[in-house]
Specification:
Layout: H1 2-14, H2 16-29, H3 40-67, E1 72-74, H4 80-91, H5 93-119, H6 122-147, E2 177-179, H7 204-207, H8 216-223, H9 230-233, H10 246-267, H11 272-289, H12 298-310, H13 318-335, H14 342-358
Helix pairs in contact: 2-3, 3-5, 4-5, 5-6, 6-10, 10-11, 13-14
Protein name: Peroxisomal membrane protein PEX16
Length: 365
């Protein structure tokens, strides 16, 4: 079995650019499959889950390859999110496995729900959803206990490297990577220049003054993005400060409990409005209790901004979706059905509307 994995790793390294392009192309196809044939949404989600799980495995292999080669490093530095999550993975093995399992559940939860909907009763389907949410709840609290910091989504490093810039297996140098091994001696003078005593005439371009249009402001705008910031030299684990007060812990705990409470209320046949209002109230409580990070806390501010944007998903849930959002989308679909180009978009949107009605995890918090 180990030889099979070794052969696959070699195949991945040799064809990494092609595999990355294929993953991106197949992932785009999954958006257009629903509604094309019977059980098309199941095939689309199965393909999407397979691609996500395979990409997770590929990211692990690529990170291992780069980490095991000390003579090469990417010229472009990794993102702050990758630095932070990778530092926790290297420090705590429990964090690494809890984060990976959490991502695997997130990749496959909709596919599991589709299978349950076709094989078991609606009551048992909701039992399966509650079981998945319970597992996710335990994993998130495990991550919170380990880090004592706000949860960052996703909790694993994202692929922020160009697959084509990986160190080649041979000793051939790559133009996108810089070797960390210094030169042992300066290059030798060519033989045809050793006895050259005629001075080099200055080039006219070197004597020409710079154009007056370039101002100090433009130079500053060019250099400012390239300057090091405090986050660039800060230790990776210090990119997010620990939760120091009980209020901070309460805000994060309420945010983690929110999807679990929402699923419990829906599974007990509670009215959709009550479940939606409870989840939205917990969202607002968590938002009001959480701390305000300083401007230098880029990772934490980015996470809170993502949470604020995710509140737009409430437009696709419960009675808000049934009485407000869906009628407007259906009106848009009917209006643009005979408009060239726009009818392509409306056709895809029309195929997705029933899926939002039927499946919980399409719009779950």
């Amino acid at each position: 079995m180990s030889s099979v994995f070794a052969k696959y790793e070699t195949f991945l390294i040799d064809n990494v650019s092609t595999i990355s392009t294929l993953e991106s192309s197949l992932r785009s196809i999954t958006w257009f499959l629903p509604g094309r044939f019977k059980d098309a949404e199941l095939a689309s989600e199965a393909l999407s889950a397979l691609l996500n799980v395979t990409s997770l495995y590929h990211d692990t292999l690529l990170a291992r390859i780069i980490k095991s080669d000390p003579n090469w490093k990417p010229i472009i530095p990794v993102s702050l999110h990758t630095r932070y999550t990778r530092a926790w993975q290297d420090k705590e093995s429990l964090y690494k496995w809890a984060a990976r399992v959490l991502e695997l559940v997130r990749f496959t939860q909709l596919l599991i729900e589709m299978g349950l909907r076709r094989k078991v009763s609606n009551k048992n389907r909701w039992r399966g959803i509650v079981l998945l949410e319970t597992l996710k709840l335990l994993l998130r609290f495990t991550l919170l206990k380990i880090t004592r910091r706000p949860l960052i989504s996703p909790p694993i490093p994202e692929r922020d490297i160009d697959p084509a810039s990986l160190p080649p297996p041979s000793n051939v140098s790559s133009p996108t990577l810089a070797s960390t091994t210094p030169y042992t001696s300066p290059p030798a003078t060519p033989d045809h220049l050793k006895n050259n005593h005629i001075p080099l005439q200055p080039n006219s371009l070197l004597l020409t003054p710079p154009p007056p249009a370039r101002s100090d402001a433009s130079i500053e705008e060019y250099l400012l993005p390239k300057a090091l910031t405090t986050t660039s030299v800060k230790p990776s684990l210090c990119l997010v400060k620990p939760l120091s007060s009980a209020q901070d812990l309460l805000a994060e705990s309420v945010y983690i409990l929110r999807p679990f409470v929402y699923a419990i209320l829906l599974s007990t046949r509670t009215h959709k409005d009550r479940a939606l209002a409870t989840a939205f109230a917990m969202e607002l409580v968590s938002r009001s209790l959480r701390r305000t990070p300083p401007a230098s806390a880029v990772v934490e501010r980015s996470e809170y901004a993502r949470r604020d944007r995710d509140m737009l998903w409430y437009l696709l849930r419960g009675s808000v979706w049934e009485t407000y959002t869906r009628p407007k989308i259906e009106s848009f679909v009917e209006t643009t059905a005979r408009t060239p180009l726009l009818n392509l978009v409306s056709g895809v949107v029309k195929d997705w509307i029933p899926l939002i009605d039927e499946y919980y995890y399409y719009t779950a918090p």
